[in-house]
C-alpha cells in the first residue's frame, strides 16, 4: 500500500521531473526554468521519499523565501499525503529555533525583542554620527546595513567590502560604516535584535553549543531549498550549520532569474553546487507548462544573449502548451500615448472575457505607475498596485502636493508652470540635478520628477477661455490649476478596488503569473536603467526582462515610447529586445498622422516557427517560417520548377538569381505552397513589389503549371 502511494506520486510527471523526484539520497541540484513545475518536482520528491519509507516527514526541513511559497509547499505536501514536513522561510525557521533554545543559550534570560524595521534606529544612529537622514535616506542606510550583515561583513570591514562589491552607497562609505557602528551600539543598549541577528543567533547556537547542534541535527536530517539562486552568505552559513557536514540536500533554482543581487543574494552557490558536492545529481527541467511556445521562444531569444557567470547555467525552455498569439512589440511617440494604448487594450481584453485579475502591467521603476494609473482610471479599468502604494498615496507625493498648494501663495502667477513646480519641489528637498544614490532616496526623487513631467505635459495644453459668443482665447495654466488637476486625479485613483489589473514592478512580479502581461517602457535608460554601470549590473537588467516575459501565460505586449513626453528627446529601444524584422509589420494608428509618426508607432511583426511555435530571429529562418532543426515538408518537384523559373527570369532581366528570390524564399514557397496572394505575401521576403512582378507566375507554378506555361518567351522588365 505504501509502495502504491509512492508510485501514485510519480503519475503525470514528465521524464525530467521524474528523474528529480527519484534521484538517490544525497546532494541533488534541480535547475528549473520558469514554468517548468519546480514546486511540483520538489514536493513530489519529498512525498515520494516519505511514502516509500526512505525518510520520515518530521525529519524534513524545506526552506524558501516567502511565506506564500512556504504555505503553497505545505498545502501540496498535505495533498500528496506527506504531513508533518516543516516548510518555512529561512527567517521563520531560524526564529522558531532561537525561541526554543533561548533559555539554554541565554542562561535563562528572555529572547530580545525582534525589530520590525531598522529605520527608526538607523535614523537615530545617523543623527549620532552627525548625519541628517529623512525616511528615504534612512531606508537606504538600513538597506546597506542589511546587505553588509547578510554578506557577513562587520562594520570595521564595510568600506573595503563595499568597494570590492562596487556598491552604490547612499553616503560616503566611511560615513555609512559610522552609521553601521552606531546602529549596532543602539541595538545592544536597547536590548533588541534584527532579522540578521536572529539568523546569526541560530548559527551561533548550533556551531558553538554542541548540545543544541546535536538536537537540531537530530530533528532535521533532510533539507530542501527553493529559489537557491537567491541565497545570501548568511543564509548559506545557516544551511551549512543545519547540515553539519551531511549531504542529504536538494536545491532548486534558475540562475537566469537572479535579480536580487543588490540585497546580497548570489547565484554563486547554485552555480558552484556540483563543484562543492562532487557526487551531486544535476537535473534540468526545461519543459515550460506555463507559457505558449511564442512567449517561450521570445524568452529564449532574450536570455540566449546573456553573458557572465549565471549564463553558464542558462536553460533553453521548450513550450508545452498549444500555440498562441504572437507577442506584440509596439513603438509610441511618447509615454502618455503608450499608457493610453495599454489601457485601451486592457479594456478590450476585459470586454472580451479576460478577468481583470489575469492582466498585469509591469515596469522597471515604481514612478512609472502614475501614467498607467491615470490611463486605466480614464478607461474605467479597475487596477491594484502590487508591492507599492498608489502614486498619489505615497508619502513623498502627498508632501509635494501640500508644498505645491502652499507655493500658489508665494510664487508669482506669471511664472511658467514647470518652473513654478520645480521651485516648489526644491523647497521640500528635491533637486532637478542627478538623483541621489540609494534605492529609496532615488525612488523618492523619481516620484517627484514624475510630478515635474506631469506639469510639463499639463502646461502643453493651455486652457481655452471664451471671451464672447464666437470668440475665445488661450490662457496659460497656472500652478493653482495644476494643484486642482492633481487633486482631481488623486480623488479618481483613491477609489478602492477588490479585483483589477495588476500594476507591479518587475522585481515584485517574481514568482507570479498572468494570462496577459504588458511589459512597458522598454527603452534605454529605463531597462537597462542608467544606474547599471557594470557588466554584471547590465546582465541583471537583462534577467529582469526575462523574468517579465516568463510571467505571461498566453498574451504578451512589449512597448516603449520614442520620447518620455510629447516633443521630448528621442530614446532608443532597449538593447535586450531581439533585432526583429520590421519590414513586414503592419502599422497601427496611435494618434497623429504622417509617415514619420507612423514609422515610430509601427507594430513589429514577430515570426514564429509554424511547426514548433518558437520565435524566429534569423533572416533565413523567418523566410522559411520554421526553425532549421524542425522537419521540412518541401515539395521537391515544385522546388525544382521554381528554381528553373527563377533562372529564366534572372537571365531575362540580366540580374543574379537571388535578386528575383533567395534560395530561402524558394524553399519557403516549396514548403508552404501558398494558394492565394495573401498567403504569398505572408512569406518574408515577398513584398508588394515582388508580388506584383512575380505573384501570378508563382501561384500558377504552385498550382501545377509548368515553367514553359508561365514564361514561354516572356521577358520581365523592372520598372524604375
Tell me what the structure shows.
Helices cover 46% and strands 12% of the residues. It has 720 residues and is an alpha/beta fold. Among the domains are: 188 residues, P-loop containing nucleotide triphosphate hydrolases (Rossmann fold, 3-Layer(aba) Sandwich); 78 residues; 101 residues, no CATH class; 113 residues, DNA polymerase, domain 1 (Orthogonal Bundle), CATH 1.10.150.80. A seven-stranded mixed β-sheet has the order 13-16-12-17-18-11-19, sandwiched between helices. A six-stranded parallel β-sheet has the order 3-2-6-7-1-8, with helices on both faces. The protein has a two-stranded parallel sheet with strand order 4-5. The protein is flat, with a radius of gyration of 30 Å. It comes from Micromonospora chokoriensis.
Quote the distance from N terminus to C terminus.
Answer: 82 Å
What is the C-alpha radius of gyration, as a whole number of Å?
30 Å
Query: How many runs of DSSP E, i.e. beta strands?
Result: 21
Instruction: Please state roughly what percent of the residues sit in beta strands, choosing from under 5%, 5-15%, 15-25%, 25-35%, 35-45% or over 45%.
Output: 5-15%
- Tell me roughly what share of residues is in helical segments: 40-55%
Major beta sheet summary: 7 strands, mixed
Assembly annotation: single chain
The overall pLDDT average reads: 84
Q: Quickly count the helices.
A: 30
Low-confidence stretches: 580-604, 714-720
- Briefly, what CATH class of one domain? Alpha Beta
Tell me the CATH superfamily of one domain: P-loop containing nucleotide triphosphate hydrolases
CATH topology title of one domain: Rossmann fold
CATH architecture of one domain: 3-Layer(aba) Sandwich
Class computed from helices, strands and strand pairing? alpha/beta
Silhouette: flat
